[in-house]
Amino acid sequence: MNQYLLLGAAILSEIIGTTSLKLSEGFSRPLPSLVVILGYGAAFYFLSLTLEELPIGIVYGTWAALGIVGIAAIGVVLFDEQMDFAGVVGILLIIAGVYCLNIISGMSTH
Question: pTM score > 0.70 for this model?
Answer without folding.
Answer: yes
